[in-house]
Amino acid sequence: MAINPLLRELQQPDRGEQMSFEQWMSEENPQDLLVEAPEKQPPVVKAPSPATGQHQDVRLYLTLLLKTFVEMTDAGLVRDLPYEVRLTDSIVYCPDIVFVSNSSFDRVYDAYIEGPPDIIFEVLSTESTAIDRGEKFVAYEAYGVREYWLIDPIRELADLYHLGPDGHYDEFRPDIAGRLRSRALRGFTLDLDLLWKRVLPTTADVVKMVEDMVAQR
Known about the structure:
Order of helices and strands: HHHEEEEEEHHEEEEEHH
Strand order of the largest sheet: 1-4-6-7-8-9
Distance between the termini: 101 Å
CATH superfamily of the largest domain: tt1808, chain A
Number of strands: 11
């Protein structure tokens, strides 16, 4: 059997000591024997599904309605996506809409609030329903979000949960006029019949609606 000359040279006893792999690579190994490692491919990140037009319309309407009411009553501030709610260092969400009362301003920063806001609105989509009704519900309740509104445009459902004295959410149903009434923001109501219309109220309509809410406080 023929012996590779390079292998014979490595095995010669008169070299005095065993050649290291690094020495062999630098001194003896021909460059054409080197195999270049394949370039590492970047991870594939799946982008979230875009919101539907209906989802955006409902979210913008709710934001306008809530913001107008809060400004007229000087009750606090309203933030929407992508504003962060940092319940802990490792539990961070970006709700659709957030209301923070004046008493919590010491925890408000430019891009996030540290700890629970007073009210959170989530507008559900096909992709978000499970987490909004499951993981987020549990987290918002556990960390003291006073009120949680779940708005489902697909099924035309709206659920209002208020944190009870036992630390658990109590569900509140619409009144006989079909309106949900906030317990955390006195005087704020949501007319569900208007919410599911194909054409939502205009900005001028919203201002008039809020003026009526404020007058009835």
